[in-house]
Amino acid sequence: MDNLLASLALGAGTALALSNVLYCFLGVMAGTFIGVLPGIGPLAAISMLLPITFYLEPAAAIIMLAGVYYGAEYGGSITSILLNLPGTTSSAVTCLDGYPLSQQGRASMALFMTAMASFLGSTVGILAMILFSPLLARFALDFGPWEYFSVMLLGLICAAVIASGSAIKGLMMVALGLLLGTVGTDVNSGTLRYTFGMYELFDGIDLIVLAMGLFGIAEVFFVLRHPADPKAGVARVSLREMLPHRSEMRRSPAPVLRGSILGSLVGALPGTGQTVAAYLSYALEKLVSRRPEKFGSGAIEGIMAPESANNAAAQTAFIPTLVLGIPGSATMALILGALMIHGISPGSALMNENSELFWGLIMSFWVGNVLLLVLNVPLIRIWVAMLGIRREILHVAIVCFICVGVYTVNHSPLDILFVLAFGIVGYAFKLAGFQPAPLLVGFILGPMMEEQLRRAMLLSGGDLGRFIERPISATVLAIALALTLLLMGRQLVALRSRKTNG
Amino acid sequence: MKFKHWIVASTMSLVVGGLTASAAHAQHYPQRPVTIVVPFAPGGSTDALARIVAEGLSNELGQRVVVANRPGAGGNIGMTAVANARPDGYTLVLVSSSLVINPSLYGSVSYDPVESFAPISYVASAPSIWVANAGIGVESAQEMLERMASGEMPYYGSPGIGTAQHLAGELLAHYADISLEHVPYNGAGPAVAGMVAGDVPSGFSSLPGVQSQIDDGLLTPLAITTLQRSEQLPEVPTFDEIGLEGYEVDHLQGLLAPSDTPEEIVGIIHDALVEFMNSAETSSRIAGLGFVPVVSTPREFAEQIAEQVEKWSEIIGAAGISVQ
């Protein structure tokens, strides 16, 4: 315990050095804006900042880059709520209840509460890092292809829960997502699928392109075709408007707590990440809620849970990177690269020989999150004022931002055409009452599931028994089975009551 | 930022390009920002290397050098784009072994690794390393080979189909004359995670990808794929030394311009590159990424490219690997 306190004090010394606070501020501010801009993610931003870090102290460099990384999670939810346009893919799920809240004229409340959820989620994530880093690293190593497959399967079953309205339509969207996910080079065999000989499709459809089209562009079409009631959605920004109703206040803490814990666990697994964390926590809340029918029409739980989960995951994602030297994503690989260019290697070397840097970084997460909260709450006024811009101008600007953002991902003009195509498809879905969220879940989980299943089968020589011999995998599969039975039971009850009523 | 510069650079190249593309203007090169295309997404080691090179060239040439990522199709999209770019020295490409591997791997690519480019210089060489999970109790490469040959643990992991590490494994099977089971992962991080967790008993990785895990005793180093031992891990033997004579996989990193770029301009870039590569600071940054900094003349580099294309075509053909 004394040891831990000494480490924290050591870290605080580094994190609170004036220059480091400054770099932290630069990082989180850049992160917020990059999160707000659709398409442009932390990956692009951090790679641009990399050369600057050559001239910085290693601690300052890594504190700044990390700030961009978790700062983007704050920014990502802002356009999700205001415009149904996810700034980062992990905040796509926040659209589901955030945008309806905004349409009800409660955008400033939603923004305020997600900022709080983000802060609390990060806090839990940081605490998890301080107390359980070695333990969580061990936990991550217990995850082989069998466990990943089981978790993905559970996630897919949860996808059926996420859709509001018709379960059949939700399942159809999941299936479509799975199909779209097969486009590209198969990881296990190198076979090209549905690429039609186009180089641009060899790596599959980009998640950002799909999400921007289905959510952002589709929404622009929808708003243009269906001018809203001028009285609706008028934004008022005063302190009062920012505060939730008492009942909403009461329903917020539990989702934040569950979301943060789930996010911390999922984030520590290399290769799942914030997006999966956000979706799982949304599904979990809807499952345990006593009023699941409210989800999708502005339920506070529907924004609190995913935003706390993705922020917690953004913090614990540093655990496999720093403790094991295993980056969970390209962005983490870049941050690790920045360390290595300075001659610092991760693992126990970082925690022992460079403990000042390790603990300094963790303590800087606190500093960064406090700065983010202080930065974000006053900005709410400005963001909400955006809704007052005349529709014609605002929507032209949105389309421009989407095109620029999507183009920067791969520098591929074809991606812009894809966004347009997905936008048209998304508009058609919207008219027909199909929701894009389950499609995204299928699209994200499908390829990972297939890859893990085939790796599992390869390594066990085709033996399915390994799935139930391994304890974590068996537990997750049991939960998945129980969930399936529960959902089927609910459907039966619903059908029967409809019959008796009819 | 990057986008803005890229737009500026590409617009400029449309407007001014035609005027400046002649050799007579070489003494004025460069008059506007130079773009180095990286045919991969940010986050990889080639991307990080390109950013070091861009930074160094900027200082030497007195002109902004920007990195533009054109990822996709294992590097084919970016390399094709540069093969077809205006040969005026304002569009360069930093390639990895994909340049020499892809033509055989993909069956057909829309560039010719030898004819489409004007090589400038080798930039770095990157050894790969064969490592085993520490928990399986294998101490040396020979021991591991015996256990693999007996069919007890024939699996090895790599970051993916057609990567230099995958080919290093296939080359091992070829040289040791045993049959191995390749377990491809989706990237370097997941592959190393699989090795550390023990899902695959052994695997190939870039050196920096497993350095800390070796230091922490999670992975046992078995052999290095280049002909020289690595400075970072001097106690680890090369494959050549353990009896697989001539075994070599070098993950090349090099800078190229489109073919027909005036020789004078290639010379200016080459000299600038050599100049900053000679500084100790650059060397240590590049070494931090696990690379060995190397420079060569354009002619030497061209010869090496031709040799490696030949070599990989044989190995890939023999192992029957393909992406199509």
TrEMBL record, chain A:
Classify the source by domain of life. Bacteria
Which ranges does the record mark as transmembrane? 27-45, 52-72, 111-132, 152-180, 201-224, 322-345, 357-380, 392-410, 416-446, 467-488
Q: What is this protein called?
A: DUF112 domain-containing protein
UniProt keyword terms in alphabetical order: Membrane, Transmembrane, Transmembrane helix
- Keyword Transmembrane helix annotated: yes
- PANTHER family the UniProt entry points to: TRICARBOXYLIC TRANSPORT PROTEIN
- What are the DUF112 domain coordinates in residue numbering? 22-440
Origin species, per record, is Billgrantia endophytica
Q: What is the lineage of its organism?
A: Bacteria, Pseudomonadati, Pseudomonadota, Gammaproteobacteria, Oceanospirillales
- Kindly indicate where the leader peptide sits in this chain: none
Respond yes or no to whether keyword Transmembrane is given for this record.
yes
TrEMBL record, chain B:
* Gene3D superfamilies membership: Bordetella uptake gene, domain 1, Periplasmic binding protein-like II
Key words, A-Z: Signal
Question: What InterPro entries does the entry give?
Answer: BUG (IPR005064), Bug_dom1 (IPR042100)
Where is the signal peptide, in residue numbers?
A: 1-26
Instruction: List all membrane-crossing ranges.
Output: none
Known Pfam families for this protein? Answer: TctC
Q: Which family does it belong to?
A: Belongs to the UPF0065 (bug) family.
- List the protein's name: Tripartite tricarboxylate transporter substrate binding protein
Native source organism of the sequence: Billgrantia endophytica
